[in-house]
């Protein structure tokens, strides 16, 4: 998953990828279930340890390879960074899902009400993120796992033809900042 590739890249770590073809159901085959019994990607194998779930993998990377740090030192700032990780997964991603799953369907099968609902929700999320960035370069002051978690959903939003509007200048500037990092291009999915 891109979120994990960005964390690996930001930490300067090397890894080898084995792509699991979800369209062929490879994630439910015994060979993969032996690695991740939950049957979902991604999973990380490191030094004999198997870690799954992209959030947990990134926390593992932070614990095992603390430099460069992707969480601030102060407990309150760490909690703030993690809260944006949670926001990306629990709130932003489900709203985007309403849009993207429908846009992937043939035109006649699209549920436009769902798409519009998703679009409205995304705007509300952007308004929140805009406020949270006031006076900050990154959501928790320094680059963190919180910023990184927001990148894949926003990249998918852009790939679908949407743009963050000029009514969200802090978010736009932050997005350009994230896209200009080498980890953005280097983590691009293969398709
Ligand atoms: N919370 C998990 C979600 C994992 C997840 O849902 N992965 C999807 C791909 S993005 C998957 O494996 N889907 C295949 C399936 O559910 O069978 C994470 O962040 O790693």
Break the fold down into its secondary structure elements and pairings.
Layout: H1 2-10, H2 30-33, E1 43-46, E2 49-52, H3 54-64, H4 75-103, H5 112-132, H6 145-159, H7 169-179, H8 182-186
Antiparallel strand pairs: 1-2
Helix pairs in contact: 1-3, 1-6, 4-5, 4-6
Compact overview of the structure:
With 191 residues, the chain is mainly alpha-helical. The chain has 2 domains: 63 residues, Glutaredoxin (3-Layer(aba) Sandwich); 112 residues, Glutathione S-transferase Yfyf (Class Pi), Chain A, domain 2.
Could you describe the 3D structure shown?
With 191 residues, the protein is mainly α. Helix content is 55%, strand content 4%. Helix 1 packs across helix 6 and helix 4 runs parallel beside helix 6. The relative contact order is 0.14. The mean pLDDT is 97. The chain binds glutathione.
Q: Which terms summarize this structure?
A:
single chain, 191 residues, mainly alpha, Glutaredoxin, Glutathione S-transferase Yfyf (Class Pi), Chain A, domain 2, 55% helix, binds glutathione
Side-by-side strand order of the widest sheet = 1-2
Order of helical and strand elements: HHEEHHHHHH
Helix content: 40-55%
Number of strands: 2
Q: How confident overall, as mean pLDDT?
A: 97
Question: Which small-molecule ligands are present, each listed once?
Answer: glutathione
Instruction: Outline the low-pLDDT stretches.
Output: none
Beta content: under 5%
Rounded radius of gyration (Å): 17 Å
Structural class: mainly alpha
- Taking the alpha carbons of the first and last residues, their distance comes to 13 Å
Number of helices: 8
Q: Briefly, what CATH class of the largest domain?
A: Mainly Alpha
How would you sum up the global shape? globular
Largest sheet: 2 strands, antiparallel
Instruction: Estimate nothing, just give the exact number of structural domains.
Output: 2
CATH fold-type name of the largest domain:
Glutathione S-transferase Yfyf (Class Pi), Chain A, domain 2
Please identify, by name, the CATH architecture of the largest domain.
Up-down Bundle
């Amino acid at each position: 998953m891109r979120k994990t590739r960005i964390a690996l890249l930001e930490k300067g770590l090397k890894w080898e990828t084995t792509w699991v073809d979800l369209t062929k159901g490879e994630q439910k085959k015994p060979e993969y279930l032996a690695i991740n019994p939950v049957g979902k990607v991604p999973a990380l194998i490191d030094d004999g340890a198997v870690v799954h779930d992209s959030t947990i993998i990134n926390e593992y990377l932070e614990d095992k390879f603390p430099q460069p740090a992707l969480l601030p030192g102060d407990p309150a700032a760490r909690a703030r960074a993690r809260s944006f990780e949670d926001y990306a997964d629990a709130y932003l991603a489900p709203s985007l899902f309403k849009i993207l799953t429908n846009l992937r369907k043939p035109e006649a099968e699209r549920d436009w009400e769902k798409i519009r609902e998703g679009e409205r929700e995304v705007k509300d999320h952007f308004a929140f993120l805009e406020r949270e960035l006031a006076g900050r370069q990154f959501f928790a002051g320094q680059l963190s796992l919180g910023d990184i978690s927001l990148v894949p959903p926003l990249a998918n939003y852009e790939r679908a033809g949407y743009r963050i509007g000029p009514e969200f200048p802090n978010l736009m500037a932050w997005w350009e900042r994230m896209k200009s990092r080498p980890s953005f291009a280097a983590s691009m999915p293969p398709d």
